[in-house]
User: Fold Flagellar biosynthesis protein FlhF from Sediminispirochaeta smaragdinae.
Amino acid sequence: MQYFTEQAYTHQEVLRKIREKYGERAKILTQRSIRMGGFLGMFSREGVEMSGYIAQDPVPRPKKSDPADEKKKILESVKGEKTLQQLLDEVRGLREKIEEGPYPVKAEKHQSIEKIERLLSENEFTYTYITAMVERLRKELSVDQLEDFQLVQDKVLGWIMETILLTPRTGQDGPQVMILIGPTGVGKTTTIAKMAAIHSLGTKGEKQKSVRLITIDNYRIGARQQIETYGDIMGVPVSCVETYQELQKQVLIYKDTDLVLVDTIGKSPKDYVNLAKMREMLSACGTRAEVHLALSATTKASDVKDILAQFEPFGYSSVVLTKLDETMRIGNIISSLYEKRKTLSYITNGQSVPEDILQADRMVLLKTLEGFDLRETFIRKEEEEGITEVEQRYLSGKEWR
Assistant:
Protein backbone atom coordinates (compact mmCIF):
# COMPACT_ATOMS: atom_id res chain seq x y z
CA MET A 1 0.00 0.00 0.00
CA GLN A 2 1.33 3.54 -0.93
CA TYR A 3 1.39 6.33 1.70
CA PHE A 4 1.85 10.12 1.26
CA THR A 5 2.47 13.35 3.26
CA GLU A 6 1.74 16.81 1.80
CA GLN A 7 2.13 20.36 3.26
CA ALA A 8 0.68 23.82 2.40
CA TYR A 9 -0.13 27.09 4.08
CA THR A 10 -3.89 26.47 4.02
CA HIS A 11 -6.20 23.49 4.37
CA GLN A 12 -7.68 23.96 0.90
CA GLU A 13 -4.26 24.21 -0.73
CA VAL A 14 -3.13 20.87 0.80
CA LEU A 15 -6.30 19.13 -0.41
CA ARG A 16 -5.81 20.54 -3.92
CA LYS A 17 -2.24 19.24 -4.05
CA ILE A 18 -3.33 15.77 -2.88
CA ARG A 19 -6.17 15.53 -5.44
CA GLU A 20 -3.88 16.67 -8.27
CA LYS A 21 -1.12 14.16 -7.39
CA TYR A 22 -3.09 11.11 -6.24
CA GLY A 23 -6.63 11.52 -7.52
CA GLU A 24 -9.84 10.29 -5.94
CA ARG A 25 -8.19 7.19 -4.44
CA ALA A 26 -6.28 9.31 -1.90
CA LYS A 27 -7.54 8.77 1.65
CA ILE A 28 -6.65 11.24 4.46
CA LEU A 29 -5.55 9.62 7.75
CA THR A 30 -4.07 12.52 9.82
CA GLN A 31 -3.82 16.29 9.75
CA ARG A 32 -1.78 18.70 11.92
CA SER A 33 -0.63 22.34 12.12
CA ILE A 34 3.07 23.05 11.39
CA ARG A 35 5.45 26.04 10.97
CA MET A 36 6.62 26.57 7.38
CA GLY A 37 9.18 28.81 5.68
CA GLY A 38 11.40 31.43 7.37
CA PHE A 39 15.15 31.37 7.97
CA LEU A 40 16.86 29.87 11.01
CA GLY A 41 13.51 29.62 12.76
CA MET A 42 12.57 33.26 12.02
CA PHE A 43 9.87 34.66 9.75
CA SER A 44 8.11 31.22 9.53
CA ARG A 45 4.36 30.96 8.90
CA GLU A 46 1.70 28.54 10.17
CA GLY A 47 0.79 25.78 7.72
CA VAL A 48 -1.07 22.45 7.43
CA GLU A 49 0.35 18.93 6.94
CA MET A 50 -1.83 15.98 5.84
CA SER A 51 -0.87 12.26 5.66
CA GLY A 52 -2.76 9.35 4.10
CA TYR A 53 -2.66 6.40 1.71
CA ILE A 54 -3.67 5.48 -1.84
CA ALA A 55 -6.59 3.01 -1.81
CA GLN A 56 -6.41 -0.06 -4.07
CA ASP A 57 -9.02 -0.72 -6.73
CA PRO A 58 -11.81 -2.68 -5.02
CA VAL A 59 -12.19 -6.33 -6.01
CA PRO A 60 -15.65 -6.81 -7.46
CA ARG A 61 -17.74 -9.24 -5.44
CA PRO A 62 -18.98 -12.19 -7.49
CA LYS A 63 -22.60 -12.20 -8.25
CA LYS A 64 -24.42 -14.78 -6.18
CA SER A 65 -25.55 -17.53 -8.49
CA ASP A 66 -28.84 -19.34 -8.31
CA PRO A 67 -28.33 -23.13 -7.68
CA ALA A 68 -31.14 -23.87 -10.10
CA ASP A 69 -29.39 -21.87 -12.82
CA GLU A 70 -26.09 -23.68 -12.16
CA LYS A 71 -27.79 -27.07 -12.35
CA LYS A 72 -29.39 -26.04 -15.62
CA LYS A 73 -26.03 -25.00 -17.07
CA ILE A 74 -24.42 -28.33 -16.07
CA LEU A 75 -27.24 -30.33 -17.64
CA GLU A 76 -27.04 -28.29 -20.82
CA SER A 77 -23.25 -28.76 -20.98
CA VAL A 78 -23.55 -32.58 -21.04
CA LYS A 79 -26.76 -32.76 -23.04
CA GLY A 80 -25.11 -33.00 -26.41
CA GLU A 81 -24.02 -36.36 -27.77
CA LYS A 82 -20.58 -35.01 -28.61
CA THR A 83 -19.88 -33.96 -25.00
CA LEU A 84 -20.93 -37.34 -23.60
CA GLN A 85 -18.72 -39.11 -26.11
CA GLN A 86 -15.77 -36.95 -25.02
CA LEU A 87 -16.36 -37.96 -21.37
CA LEU A 88 -16.49 -41.63 -22.31
CA ASP A 89 -13.28 -41.33 -24.31
CA GLU A 90 -11.51 -39.70 -21.36
CA VAL A 91 -12.65 -42.44 -18.96
CA ARG A 92 -11.55 -45.14 -21.41
CA GLY A 93 -8.17 -43.50 -21.85
CA LEU A 94 -7.67 -43.22 -18.09
CA ARG A 95 -8.46 -46.90 -17.63
CA GLU A 96 -5.94 -47.87 -20.34
CA LYS A 97 -3.25 -45.79 -18.64
CA ILE A 98 -3.89 -47.49 -15.31
CA GLU A 99 -3.69 -50.95 -16.87
CA GLU A 100 -0.49 -50.13 -18.76
CA GLY A 101 1.12 -48.13 -15.94
CA PRO A 102 3.72 -49.22 -13.36
CA TYR A 103 1.04 -50.13 -10.80
CA PRO A 104 -0.67 -53.40 -11.77
CA VAL A 105 -4.39 -53.77 -11.28
CA LYS A 106 -5.12 -56.06 -8.32
CA ALA A 107 -5.81 -59.56 -9.58
CA GLU A 108 -8.93 -61.44 -8.63
CA LYS A 109 -8.62 -64.18 -6.02
CA HIS A 110 -7.76 -67.52 -7.60
CA GLN A 111 -10.56 -70.10 -7.46
CA SER A 112 -8.28 -72.62 -5.68
CA ILE A 113 -7.62 -70.08 -2.93
CA GLU A 114 -11.34 -69.35 -2.63
CA LYS A 115 -12.06 -73.07 -2.31
CA ILE A 116 -9.38 -73.54 0.37
CA GLU A 117 -10.75 -70.56 2.28
CA ARG A 118 -14.21 -72.09 2.19
CA LEU A 119 -12.97 -75.50 3.39
CA LEU A 120 -11.01 -73.95 6.26
CA SER A 121 -13.99 -71.82 7.25
CA GLU A 122 -16.35 -74.82 7.17
CA ASN A 123 -13.96 -76.63 9.52
CA GLU A 124 -14.13 -73.58 11.85
CA PHE A 125 -10.51 -72.51 11.65
CA THR A 126 -10.07 -69.00 13.04
CA TYR A 127 -9.96 -65.94 10.79
CA THR A 128 -6.33 -65.24 11.73
CA TYR A 129 -5.30 -68.80 10.88
CA ILE A 130 -7.12 -68.77 7.51
CA THR A 131 -5.61 -65.40 6.58
CA ALA A 132 -2.09 -66.66 7.30
CA MET A 133 -2.69 -69.84 5.30
CA VAL A 134 -3.99 -67.91 2.27
CA GLU A 135 -1.05 -65.51 2.42
CA ARG A 136 1.35 -68.45 2.38
CA LEU A 137 -0.38 -69.90 -0.68
CA ARG A 138 0.03 -66.61 -2.53
CA LYS A 139 3.71 -66.35 -1.62
CA GLU A 140 4.85 -69.91 -2.24
CA LEU A 141 2.73 -71.22 -5.13
CA SER A 142 2.85 -70.04 -8.74
CA VAL A 143 -0.25 -69.47 -10.87
CA ASP A 144 0.35 -72.79 -12.64
CA GLN A 145 0.58 -74.62 -9.31
CA LEU A 146 -2.65 -73.00 -8.11
CA GLU A 147 -4.39 -74.57 -11.12
CA ASP A 148 -3.71 -78.01 -9.61
CA PHE A 149 -6.14 -78.07 -6.69
CA GLN A 150 -4.95 -81.46 -5.43
CA LEU A 151 -1.46 -80.01 -5.12
CA VAL A 152 -2.84 -76.94 -3.35
CA GLN A 153 -4.81 -79.13 -0.97
CA ASP A 154 -1.79 -81.32 -0.17
CA LYS A 155 0.29 -78.22 0.54
CA VAL A 156 -2.34 -76.84 2.92
CA LEU A 157 -2.73 -80.17 4.72
CA GLY A 158 1.04 -80.32 5.17
CA TRP A 159 1.07 -76.80 6.60
CA ILE A 160 -1.81 -77.62 8.94
CA MET A 161 0.18 -80.64 10.10
CA GLU A 162 3.12 -78.35 10.89
CA THR A 163 0.94 -76.23 13.15
CA ILE A 164 -0.19 -79.19 15.25
CA LEU A 165 2.50 -79.12 17.92
CA LEU A 166 3.07 -82.34 19.85
CA THR A 167 4.54 -82.65 23.31
CA PRO A 168 8.12 -83.96 22.92
CA ARG A 169 8.75 -87.34 24.53
CA THR A 170 11.65 -86.59 26.85
CA GLY A 171 12.10 -90.11 28.23
CA GLN A 172 12.42 -88.75 31.76
CA ASP A 173 13.88 -91.24 34.23
CA GLY A 174 12.81 -91.61 37.83
CA PRO A 175 9.50 -90.75 39.50
CA GLN A 176 7.13 -88.58 37.47
CA VAL A 177 4.12 -86.59 38.70
CA MET A 178 1.42 -85.63 36.21
CA ILE A 179 -1.44 -83.29 37.19
CA LEU A 180 -4.59 -83.00 35.08
CA ILE A 181 -6.51 -79.73 35.37
CA GLY A 182 -9.38 -78.24 33.39
CA PRO A 183 -12.92 -76.82 33.43
CA THR A 184 -15.94 -78.81 34.50
CA GLY A 185 -17.46 -81.32 32.12
CA VAL A 186 -14.40 -82.11 29.99
CA GLY A 187 -14.03 -85.67 31.35
CA LYS A 188 -10.94 -85.31 33.53
CA THR A 189 -11.63 -88.28 35.81
CA THR A 190 -12.30 -90.67 32.92
CA THR A 191 -9.24 -89.34 31.10
CA ILE A 192 -6.91 -89.77 34.06
CA ALA A 193 -8.21 -93.32 34.52
CA LYS A 194 -7.33 -94.01 30.86
CA MET A 195 -3.85 -92.55 31.40
CA ALA A 196 -3.39 -94.75 34.47
CA ALA A 197 -4.44 -97.81 32.47
CA ILE A 198 -2.14 -97.36 29.46
CA HIS A 199 0.86 -96.60 31.67
CA SER A 200 0.23 -99.47 34.10
CA LEU A 201 -0.45 -101.95 31.29
CA GLY A 202 2.19 -100.62 28.90
CA THR A 203 -0.18 -100.06 25.95
CA LYS A 204 -0.80 -97.31 23.37
CA GLY A 205 2.91 -96.72 22.93
CA GLU A 206 3.65 -96.27 26.63
CA LYS A 207 6.15 -98.27 28.69
CA GLN A 208 4.77 -100.33 31.56
CA LYS A 209 5.19 -98.45 34.84
CA SER A 210 4.16 -98.57 38.46
CA VAL A 211 1.29 -96.09 38.80
CA ARG A 212 -0.53 -94.40 41.70
CA LEU A 213 -3.62 -92.17 41.62
CA ILE A 214 -4.32 -89.18 43.86
CA THR A 215 -7.55 -87.20 43.75
CA ILE A 216 -8.39 -83.88 45.37
CA ASP A 217 -11.94 -84.03 43.94
CA ASN A 218 -13.83 -84.87 47.13
CA TYR A 219 -16.69 -82.42 46.59
CA ARG A 220 -18.38 -83.56 43.40
CA ILE A 221 -21.02 -86.22 44.14
CA GLY A 222 -19.73 -89.67 43.25
CA ALA A 223 -16.31 -88.42 42.15
CA ARG A 224 -14.37 -90.29 44.82
CA GLN A 225 -16.28 -93.50 44.26
CA GLN A 226 -15.75 -93.23 40.51
CA ILE A 227 -11.97 -92.91 40.69
CA GLU A 228 -11.73 -95.63 43.36
CA THR A 229 -13.75 -97.98 41.16
CA TYR A 230 -11.40 -97.37 38.26
CA GLY A 231 -8.44 -97.98 40.57
CA ASP A 232 -9.84 -101.29 41.79
CA ILE A 233 -10.45 -102.52 38.24
CA MET A 234 -6.92 -101.59 37.09
CA GLY A 235 -5.19 -102.60 40.30
CA VAL A 236 -3.90 -99.07 40.82
CA PRO A 237 -3.89 -97.67 44.40
CA VAL A 238 -5.97 -94.50 44.89
CA SER A 239 -5.52 -91.85 47.60
CA CYS A 240 -7.94 -89.01 48.38
CA VAL A 241 -6.61 -85.76 49.89
CA GLU A 242 -8.17 -82.46 50.91
CA THR A 243 -5.27 -80.23 52.00
CA TYR A 244 -1.84 -79.08 50.87
CA GLN A 245 -0.17 -81.06 53.65
CA GLU A 246 -1.99 -84.30 52.78
CA LEU A 247 -1.11 -83.96 49.11
CA GLN A 248 2.54 -83.27 49.89
CA LYS A 249 2.62 -86.31 52.19
CA GLN A 250 1.15 -88.63 49.55
CA VAL A 251 3.61 -87.44 46.89
CA LEU A 252 6.48 -88.23 49.29
CA ILE A 253 5.01 -91.64 50.10
CA TYR A 254 4.90 -92.46 46.37
CA LYS A 255 8.43 -91.15 45.68
CA ASP A 256 9.56 -94.58 44.44
CA THR A 257 6.60 -94.94 42.07
CA ASP A 258 7.26 -94.47 38.34
CA LEU A 259 4.18 -92.33 37.75
CA VAL A 260 1.83 -90.45 40.11
CA LEU A 261 -1.33 -89.11 38.46
CA VAL A 262 -3.23 -86.31 40.23
CA ASP A 263 -6.92 -85.75 39.47
CA THR A 264 -8.30 -82.29 40.29
CA ILE A 265 -11.58 -80.48 40.81
CA GLY A 266 -13.27 -79.11 37.71
CA LYS A 267 -13.40 -75.33 37.87
CA SER A 268 -14.93 -72.66 35.69
CA PRO A 269 -12.20 -70.48 34.14
CA LYS A 270 -14.08 -67.49 35.60
CA ASP A 271 -13.90 -68.84 39.17
CA TYR A 272 -10.69 -66.93 39.94
CA VAL A 273 -10.75 -67.34 43.72
CA ASN A 274 -11.07 -71.13 43.77
CA LEU A 275 -8.65 -71.49 40.87
CA ALA A 276 -6.06 -69.63 42.94
CA LYS A 277 -6.72 -71.87 45.96
CA MET A 278 -6.37 -75.01 43.85
CA ARG A 279 -3.14 -73.74 42.30
CA GLU A 280 -1.69 -73.15 45.75
CA MET A 281 -2.67 -76.65 46.88
CA LEU A 282 -1.16 -78.30 43.77
CA SER A 283 2.17 -76.60 44.42
CA ALA A 284 2.62 -79.37 47.05
CA CYS A 285 3.47 -81.70 44.14
CA GLY A 286 6.79 -79.93 43.60
CA THR A 287 8.35 -78.01 40.72
CA ARG A 288 9.07 -81.12 38.63
CA ALA A 289 5.39 -82.02 38.30
CA GLU A 290 3.95 -81.87 34.78
CA VAL A 291 0.64 -80.05 34.47
CA HIS A 292 -1.66 -81.01 31.57
CA LEU A 293 -4.83 -79.09 30.69
CA ALA A 294 -7.87 -81.19 29.67
CA LEU A 295 -9.76 -79.42 26.87
CA SER A 296 -12.91 -80.71 25.16
CA ALA A 297 -12.87 -80.81 21.34
CA THR A 298 -16.46 -79.53 21.42
CA THR A 299 -15.42 -76.15 22.90
CA LYS A 300 -16.04 -73.18 20.62
CA ALA A 301 -13.09 -71.03 19.52
CA SER A 302 -13.78 -68.00 21.74
CA ASP A 303 -14.11 -70.22 24.83
CA VAL A 304 -10.96 -72.17 23.94
CA LYS A 305 -8.91 -68.98 24.07
CA ASP A 306 -10.45 -67.97 27.42
CA ILE A 307 -9.77 -71.40 28.95
CA LEU A 308 -6.16 -71.46 27.72
CA ALA A 309 -5.59 -67.99 29.15
CA GLN A 310 -7.33 -68.48 32.52
CA PHE A 311 -5.47 -71.71 33.33
CA GLU A 312 -2.12 -70.23 32.30
CA PRO A 313 -1.09 -69.51 35.93
CA PHE A 314 -0.95 -73.28 36.56
CA GLY A 315 2.01 -73.43 34.17
CA TYR A 316 0.58 -76.34 32.16
CA SER A 317 3.06 -77.80 29.68
CA SER A 318 0.58 -79.31 27.24
CA VAL A 319 -3.04 -80.09 26.43
CA VAL A 320 -5.03 -83.33 26.54
CA LEU A 321 -7.77 -83.11 23.91
CA THR A 322 -10.93 -84.94 25.05
CA LYS A 323 -14.21 -85.93 23.40
CA LEU A 324 -12.86 -85.92 19.85
CA ASP A 325 -15.63 -88.36 18.95
CA GLU A 326 -18.32 -85.79 19.82
CA THR A 327 -17.55 -83.20 17.14
CA MET A 328 -17.04 -82.94 13.39
CA ARG A 329 -15.23 -79.56 13.45
CA ILE A 330 -11.85 -79.13 15.14
CA GLY A 331 -10.33 -76.28 13.14
CA ASN A 332 -11.01 -73.99 16.08
CA ILE A 333 -8.95 -76.26 18.36
CA ILE A 334 -6.01 -76.54 15.94
CA SER A 335 -6.04 -72.77 15.33
CA SER A 336 -6.29 -71.74 18.98
CA LEU A 337 -3.63 -74.16 20.23
CA TYR A 338 -1.19 -73.03 17.57
CA GLU A 339 -1.86 -69.34 18.14
CA LYS A 340 -1.15 -69.89 21.86
CA ARG A 341 1.81 -72.21 21.06
CA LYS A 342 0.40 -75.09 23.12
CA THR A 343 1.40 -78.72 22.50
CA LEU A 344 -0.82 -81.80 22.51
CA SER A 345 0.06 -84.80 24.66
CA TYR A 346 -2.98 -87.13 24.45
CA ILE A 347 -6.28 -87.47 22.58
CA THR A 348 -9.40 -89.23 23.86
CA ASN A 349 -12.17 -90.29 21.50
CA GLY A 350 -14.73 -92.22 23.58
CA GLN A 351 -15.73 -93.38 27.05
CA SER A 352 -14.11 -96.80 27.10
CA VAL A 353 -11.21 -97.32 29.51
CA PRO A 354 -8.46 -97.83 28.47
CA GLU A 355 -9.24 -98.22 24.76
CA ASP A 356 -10.29 -94.67 23.82
CA ILE A 357 -7.04 -92.80 24.42
CA LEU A 358 -3.87 -92.44 22.37
CA GLN A 359 -0.75 -90.35 22.24
CA ALA A 360 -1.36 -87.15 20.28
CA ASP A 361 -1.16 -87.88 16.55
CA ARG A 362 -1.31 -85.31 13.75
CA MET A 363 -2.87 -87.67 11.22
CA VAL A 364 -5.74 -88.49 13.59
CA LEU A 365 -6.65 -84.80 13.67
CA LEU A 366 -6.21 -84.33 9.92
CA LYS A 367 -8.57 -87.22 9.21
CA THR A 368 -11.34 -85.40 11.09
CA LEU A 369 -11.26 -82.46 8.65
CA GLU A 370 -14.36 -82.27 6.45
CA GLY A 371 -14.11 -81.75 2.68
CA PHE A 372 -10.38 -82.46 2.31
CA ASP A 373 -9.25 -85.38 0.16
CA LEU A 374 -6.55 -87.27 2.05
CA ARG A 375 -4.84 -89.32 -0.65
CA GLU A 376 -3.07 -92.56 0.19
CA THR A 377 0.22 -91.01 -0.87
CA PHE A 378 -0.31 -88.27 1.70
CA ILE A 379 -1.46 -90.47 4.59
CA ARG A 380 1.72 -91.52 6.34
CA LYS A 381 2.79 -91.85 9.92
CA GLU A 382 5.41 -89.35 11.04
CA GLU A 383 8.22 -90.64 13.22
CA GLU A 384 7.60 -89.28 16.71
CA GLU A 385 10.77 -90.49 18.36
CA GLY A 386 12.70 -87.66 19.94
CA ILE A 387 12.08 -84.01 18.99
CA THR A 388 11.09 -83.55 15.34
CA GLU A 389 11.97 -80.57 13.16
CA VAL A 390 8.50 -79.11 13.78
CA GLU A 391 8.94 -79.23 17.56
CA GLN A 392 12.45 -77.78 17.24
CA ARG A 393 11.02 -74.77 15.43
CA TYR A 394 8.33 -74.48 18.10
CA LEU A 395 10.82 -74.70 20.97
CA SER A 396 13.08 -72.09 19.33
CA GLY A 397 10.11 -69.73 18.89
CA LYS A 398 10.29 -69.66 15.06
CA GLU A 399 7.16 -69.11 13.00
CA TRP A 400 5.93 -71.56 10.40
CA ARG A 401 4.67 -68.68 8.26
Notes: Residues 103-107, 381-401 have pLDDT under 50 and may be disordered.
